[in-house]
Design goal:
The structure is a single chain. By secondary structure, this protein is an alpha+beta fold. It has 2 domains: 82 residues, Rossmann fold, CATH 3.40.50.300; 105 residues, Ribulose 1,5 Bisphosphate Carboxylase/Oxygenase (2-Layer Sandwich), CATH 3.30.190.20. The protein is built from 7 helices and 8 strands, in the order ββααβαααβαβββαβ. A 5-stranded antiparallel sheet has the order 6-5-7-4-8. β1 and β2 form a beta hairpin. α5 packs across α7. The protein starts with a strand and ends with a strand.
Length: 241
């Protein structure tokens, strides 16, 4: 059962005089006292130092080489202690966008956590997002667009600034003749000059074909090519009648 308090016994770090104290968990606890009474020695040099030391010791030897190692504080025992973070008021940023999450870098760990356990949904239709294999993508295309003519593209550049001259040359070297730039399809050599400071979307046009059984193998190859070029992404455009 999780302990409801942190118990510090025999703390002698710096100017602490062999003190024992109990700190309740899930509460906002403030340590006060006159200058030199040992507030920082208790909070940072004892409590935080031991919490951080235990956290680092739980990591692999490879990970520990990138983290600073703190010495064990001069204390007999600390019970109920969890991994800890410390915020020094002297180092906080005056940037209005800085928060406790960004200053302590705990936000980075939260992003990793939610990236692994979260279930993303489409912001437009609200449906859950899921990764599909090329063959599953083909089945979805047949379910929704059978008999229609579609354009398979690889969305490589998404909302990025630049002129992308070298990128377009690279597309030609790969053997593709057309790209879709900001919603319009061009031959690669006919793409108009792009504004350097404006965000652009560029898709490599893989193929144009009709969704029917005799084209199923070809469609699968097109989707696989798009996945390869766009790092697992593909866009299917349905041509108007």
């Amino acid at each position: 059962m999780e302990k409801k308090k942190i118990v510090i016994r025999g703390a002698r770090q710096h100017n602490l005089k062999n003190i024992t104290v109990e700190i309740p968990k899930n509460k906002l606890v403030v340590i006060t006292g006159v200058s030199g009474s040992g507030k920082s020695s208790l909070a940072f040099d004892t409590l935080y130092a031991e919490g951080y030391r235990r956290f680092v010791e739980s990591l692999s030897a490879y990970a520990r080489q990138f983290l600073g190692v703190m010495e064990k504080p001069d204390v007999d025992d600390i019970e109920g202690l969890s991994p800890a973070i410390a915020i020094d008021q002297k180092t906080t940023s005056k940037n209005p966008r800085s928060t406790v999450g960004t200053v302590t870098e705990i936000y980075d760990y939260l992003r990793v956590l939610f990236a692994n356990i979260g279930k993303p949904h489409c912001p437009v239709c609200g449906k859950p997002l899921e990764g599909l294999s090329p063959s599953q993508v083909v089945e979805k295309i047949f379910q929704n667009h059978k008999g229609k003519r579609v354009i398979i593209t690889a969305p490589v550049v998404r909302g990025k600034k630049g002129e992308f001259k070298d990128f377009l040359k690279g597309v030609q070297k790969l053997g593709y003749s057309r790209v879709r730039v900001d919603g319009e399809i061009y031959r690669v050599e006919e793409v108009p000059p792009l504004e350097k400071n404006k965000k652009h979307d560029i898709e490599v046009v893989i193929d144009r074909l009709t969704v029917k059984e005799e084209n199923k193998t070809r469609l699968l190859q097109d989707v696989e090519k798009a996945f390869e070029i766009a790092n697992g992404l593909v866009k299917v455009l349905v041509e108007e009648d």
